[in-house]
């Protein structure tokens, strides 16, 4: 069974090498790059010649573009800050030999400031990343692109690694961008926010993540993550208020 | 009758510079010193004055001093590109210069806006700024991040306001907060070790001081957000210091390169 890896990139020189290294065993790698100004493209070319330069039209559009250029029956979709472990690679090759499923989800180990966050609702955090090409399409949604799979979905046991935020600057940069997108989306759906949402929703978000999801077991990094995530909720609603005023 | 020069320093201010200069058309001379803007700042400025100078950014005090040096008149009004002179203030200044000022410098109230609202509390208003002064008696102070002028002589106050609207959105505020806290964290790295409770205690006290003692509570949602952002900045700052304190020397020098 052949398998294609798809990725979309923009200025990922720090991550991309390790990511592609981890999927060298795949039959094909297709990368859609939105005109990176760093060494991303140069590095990608060491692994594949299927690099498509295309402006960023949205996550779904660019991923669908990558999907359209693949030639394998199965697709593994990755982000540049993710890695496939050897165990996961073996498991993927093994299950694809014989399966009735149209797709597979896998757990994902996400690292925040270098620490694997086991709680906070982050783990196992199953993600659907492996699927049969003919049964799937990426759908529009401003922040978290969704994959729509037509068919049944199995589960893998080994985890994908996600090296998300290696610095707080980067975390806050993303925080700022995503809260804006999320606020626009709420605003377009006709939602309005006031002081009540801005004050109380973050409190609930913190209590849920830190106590119910046991973020307190993730050490000081867990505390930081829960506080920042509460801040994320506050800023999301504050920006929604800003759009509506 | 005293003549007046306006001194403005700019960098990529095409959004603000037009209203700024429009509000001081009545002055005898306008000086704009631009730090190599890549937008249309200079083009817009030239519609208001021939005296536009381009100069690489040397630091705040040096650039401001250069602008003062370019002024031909002894009385100077120093403005930021995101500020405007209200009509009443314009009348007041013209009247003052016509009758002959008794002081060597004047403090002016500044009406600052946050997300479109004039903020009177949180120490924002009147927020007197020394902006109108006799050049021969004034120096730019070198230490300050924000502008400062030192007048050697008596100083008075004017009645009317400068308007200050940087058209800051929440996204801008967060981006600024991110950058500022990184710089500040490097500065404070060597100070006392950050513990987990600093993430909770220090931002809380910042918030309550601003919200209650400084009256943010009277400014509605705007006031709340203003104080909240100040507190969030504190929290992020302590997190960044904590993070830096846990790096080894190599990682630290790597980070210093990316931030400065």
Give a written overview of the molecule:
The complex is a heterodimer of chains A (245) and B (260). Chain A has seven helices and 13 strands. In chain A, the strands form three sheets. Chain A has a seven-stranded mixed sheet with strand order 3-2-1-4-9-6-12. In chain A, strands 5-13-7-8 form a four-stranded mixed sheet. Helices cover 40% and strands 23% of the residues of chain A. In chain A, helix 6 packs antiparallel against helix 7. In chain A, a hairpin with a 2-residue loop joins strand 7 and strand 8 (115-116). Chain A folds into two domains: 3-105 and 126-158, Spore Coat Polysaccharide Biosynthesis Protein SpsA, Chain A; 167-244, no CATH class. Chain A has 245 residues and is α/β, with parallel strands linked by helices. Chain B is of the alpha/beta class and 260 residues long. Chain B folds into two domains: 4-164, Spore Coat Polysaccharide Biosynthesis Protein SpsA, Chain A, CATH 3.90.550.10; 170-259, no CATH class. In chain B, 42% of the residues lie in helices and 23% in strands. Chain B is built from eight helices and eleven strands. Chain B has helices at residues 17-22, 41-46, 60-70, 87-99, 170-188, 198-213, 220-245, 249-259; strands at 4-10, 29-34, 52-54, 75-80, 83-85, 105-114, 117-118, 129-134, 138-140, 149-151, 155-164. In chain B, the strands form two sheets. In chain B, strands 1, 2, 3, 4, 5, 6, 7, 8 and 11 form a nine-stranded mixed sheet that branches. Chain B has a two-stranded antiparallel sheet with strand order 9-10. In chain B, helix 5 runs parallel beside helix 7 and helix 6 runs antiparallel to helix 7 (220-245). The radius of gyration of chain B is 21 Å and the shape is globular. The N and C termini of chain B lie far apart (48 Å). The mean pLDDT of chain B is 92. Chain A binds chain B through residues 113, 167-169, 172-173, 175-176, 179-180, 194-195, 198-199, 220, 223-224, 227-228, 231, 234-235, 238-239, 241-242, 245, and chain B through 115-116, 169-171, 174-175, 177-178, 182, 196, 199-200, 221, 224-225, 228, 232, 235-236, 239-240, 242-243, 255, 259.
């Amino acid at each position: 069974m052949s398998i294609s890896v798809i990725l979309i990139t923009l200025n990922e020189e720090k991550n991309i090498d390790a990511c592609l290294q981890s999927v060298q065993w795949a039959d094909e790698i297709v990368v859609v790059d939105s005109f990176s100004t760093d060494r991303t493209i140069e590095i990608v070319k060491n692994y594949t010649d299927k690099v498509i330069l295309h402006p960023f039209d949205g996550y779904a559009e660019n991923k669908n573009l990558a999907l359209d250029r693949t030639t394998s029956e199965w697709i593994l979709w990755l982000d540049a800050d993710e890695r496939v472990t050897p165990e996961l690679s073996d498991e993927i090759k093994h299950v694809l030999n014989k399966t009735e499923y149209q797709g597979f989800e896998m757990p994902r180990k996400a690292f925040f400031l270098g620490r694997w966050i086991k709680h906070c609702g982050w783990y196992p955090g199953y993600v659907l990343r492996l699927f049969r090409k003919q049964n799937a399409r990426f759908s529009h949604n401003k922040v978290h692109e969704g994959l729509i799979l037509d068919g049944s979905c199995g589960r893998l046991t080994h985890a994908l690694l996600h090296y998300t935020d290696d610095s707080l600057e980067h975390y806050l940069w993303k925080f700022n961008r995503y809260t804006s997108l999320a606020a626009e989306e709420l605003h377009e759906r006709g939602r309005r926010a006031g002081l009540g949402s801005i004050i109380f929703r973050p409190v609930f978000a913190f209590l849920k993540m830190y106590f119910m999801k046991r973020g307190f077991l993730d050490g000081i990094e867990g505390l930081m993550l829960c506080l920042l995530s509460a801040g994320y909720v506050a800023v999301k609603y504050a920006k929604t208020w800003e759009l509506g005023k | 009758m005293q003549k007046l020069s306006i001194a403005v320093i700019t960098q990529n201010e095409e959004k603000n510079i037009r209203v700024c200069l429009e509000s001081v058309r009545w002055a005898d001379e306008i000086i704009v010193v631009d730090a190599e803007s890549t937008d249309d700042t200079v083009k817009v400025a030239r519609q208001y004055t021939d005296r536009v100078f381009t100069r690489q950014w040397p630091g705040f005090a040096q650039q401001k001093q250069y602008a003062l040096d370019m002024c031909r008149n002894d009385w100077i009004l120093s403005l930021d590109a995101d500020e405007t002179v209200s009509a009443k203030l314009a009348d007041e200044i013209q009247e003052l210069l016509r009758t002959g000022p008794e002081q060597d410098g004047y403090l002016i109230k500044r009406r600052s806006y946050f997300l479109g609202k004039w903020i009177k509390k949180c120490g924002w208003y009147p927020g007197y700024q020394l902006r109108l002064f006799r050049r021969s008696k004034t120096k730019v102070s070198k230490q300050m991040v924000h502008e400062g002028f030192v007048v050697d002589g008596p100083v008075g106050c004017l009645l009317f306001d400068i308007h200050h609207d940087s058209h800051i959105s929440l996204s801008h505020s967060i981006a600024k907060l991110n950058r500022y806290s990184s710089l500040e964290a490097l500065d404070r790295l060597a100070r006392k070790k950050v513990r987990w409770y600093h993430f909770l205690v220090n931002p809380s006290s910042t918030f309550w001081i601003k919200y209650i003692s400084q009256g943010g509570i009277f400014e509605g949602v705007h006031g709340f957000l203003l104080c909240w952002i100040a507190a969030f900045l504190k929290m992020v700052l302590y997190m960044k210091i904590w993070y830096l304190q846990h790096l080894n020397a190599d990682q630290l020098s790597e980070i210093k390169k990316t931030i400065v």
